[in-house]
Design a protein that fits this description.
alpha+beta, Aminopeptidase, seven-stranded mixed sheet, 4 helices, globular
Length: about 170
């Protein structure tokens, strides 16, 4: 197990897009032919089409080993959505995903309750994502909803919820 030294979380730039897409493919989140939507989302955020969207990367010794994207959920009351998180497969299980999640949660808490009350995360119900669901539960997220057949006939969307406000459950 590697020590989590020499890690840096920073704002993502357009030059990181190929690495972010490669991580998503390597982690088997999306097939190569479908991963281009990540660049589309990044570019939309960069030109201001997705207000307050944040893309971050985690680097180890200059190499991108993780990435995350979150933004306010439209038509909600101070609710934010973690749209994407990935850690390179060889680094999974070393606490990098937890570090990214804590960074996001802390950044949102710093915005204050007047801007950020809740963070939700959505994932698949398939067996492939059992570890992902356990990861969110282990970080204190509550399974809040299931939208049946969202991703396909046998693939529901599972929504996890966490308060960003102290003392609110």
């Amino acid at each position: 197990m590697r020590h989590n030294t020499n890690l840096r979380i920073r704002a993502a730039s357009a030059s990181d897009l190929a690495a972010i897409e490669a991580l998503a493919v390597a982690a088997k989140m999306f097939p190569k032919e479908q991963v281009g939507f990540l660049s589309e989302q990044f570019n939309a955020a960069a030109r201001g089409a997705i207000e307050d969207a944040c893309w971050l990367v985690m680097e180890r010794e200059g190499a991108v080993v993780g990435a995350v994207n979150y933004a306010p959920e439209p038509y909600s009351d101070r609710l934010w959505n973690l749209y994407f998180i990935v850690v390179e497969p060889n680094s999974q299980g070393q606490g990098l995903g937890k570090m990214l999640m804590e960074h996001v949660e802390n950044a949102l808490r710093e915005r204050g309750e007047s801007d950020a009350r809740v963070l939700i995360v959505e994932t698949s119900s398939t067996r492939q994502y059992e570890g992902t669901r356990a990861f969110y539960a282990g970080l204190g997220y509550t399974k809040e909803a299931v939208v049946r057949q969202f991703y396909g006939p046998d693939d529901d969307k599972v929504v996890f919820w966490k308060s960003l406000v102290a003392g609110v459950r």
